[in-house]
C-alpha cells in the first residue's frame, strides 16, 4: 500500500499470517482470519466468526480499540466497483440498530470482489 493511498483512505490487503500473529491475544480458540485490509495504521479483518475493526489511536498507536461485529448483526452491505472517472471501489456495511453504514474505500486494483464474497459467505 502506498503512503498516498493510505492518506486518501484507500484500503489494501494485508498478510493473514502477520495479522494472526499480531492479534493472537484477541482471536478466540479456533478462530481463523479469512482476509484483512489496512488503511494507514487501522485495519479491518474478516474471520470465520466476525468482522473485527482495529483502530490504533494516539501518536504512537500503542492504544488500540478492537471492535467486534458478529456477522448476524450485519443487516445488509453494498459494494461499488471502480469506474472510468471514479477510481475507487467502496464497501458499505449496515448494522442492526444503526442508520449510518460503516464505509471503507479500496483502490482500483484492490480485490473488492473477494471482500464481497467473504461477506456474502458469512452474512447470507
UniProtKB/TrEMBL annotation:
Annotated protein name in UniProt: PH domain-containing protein
Lineage: Bacteria, Bacillati, Bacillota, Bacilli, Bacillales
Domain Bacterial Pleckstrin homology: 2-123
Pfam family, one: bPH_1
Top-level taxon: Bacteria
Amino acid at each position: 500500500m502506498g503512503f498516498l493511498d493510505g492518506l486518501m483512505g484507500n484500503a489494501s490487503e494485508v498478510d493473514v499470517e502477520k495479522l494472526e500473529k499480531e492479534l493472537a491475544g484477541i482471536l478466540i480458540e479456533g478462530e481463523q482470519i479469512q482476509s484483512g485490509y489496512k488503511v494507514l495504521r487501522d485495519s479491518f479483518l474478516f474471520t470465520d466468526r466476525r468482522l473485527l475493526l482495529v483502530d490504533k489511536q494516539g501518536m504512537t498507536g500503542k492504544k488500540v480499540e478492537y471492535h467486534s461485529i458478529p456477522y448476524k448483526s450485519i443487516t445488509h452491505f453494498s459494494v461499488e466497483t471502480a469506474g472510468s472517472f471514479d477510481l475507487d471501489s467502496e464497501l458499505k456495511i449496515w448494522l442492526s440498530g444503526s442508520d449510518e453504514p460503516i464505509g471503507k474505500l479500496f483502490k482500483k486494483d484492490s480485490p473488492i470482489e473477494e471482500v464481497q464474497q467473504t461477506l456474502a459467505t458469512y452474512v447470507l
